[in-house]
Amino acid sequence: MSSGYNPPKFITDAAKEALDKVDCNQYSPTKGRPRLKKAIAKAYSPLFARDIDPETEVTITTGANEGILSALMGFIEAGDEVIVFEPFFDQYISNIQMTGGVIRYVPLHPPKNGATEVSSAGDWSINMAEFEKAITSQTKMIILNTPHNPVGKIFSKSELQAIGDLCVKHNIIILSDEVYDRLPFTPFTRIATLSTEIAAQTLTVGSAGKNFHCTGWRVGYLIGPSNLIYYVAAAHTRICFSTVSPLQEAAAVGFEKADELGFWEQSRKDMLGKVERFCAVFDELGLPYSKPEGGYFVLANFARVKLPADYEFPPHVAERPRDFKLAWFLIMELGVAAIPPTEFYTKENMWMAEDYLRFAICKEDDVLEGAKERLRGLRKYMS
Question: How far apart are CA 306 and CA 223, in angstroms?
Answer without folding.
Answer: 47
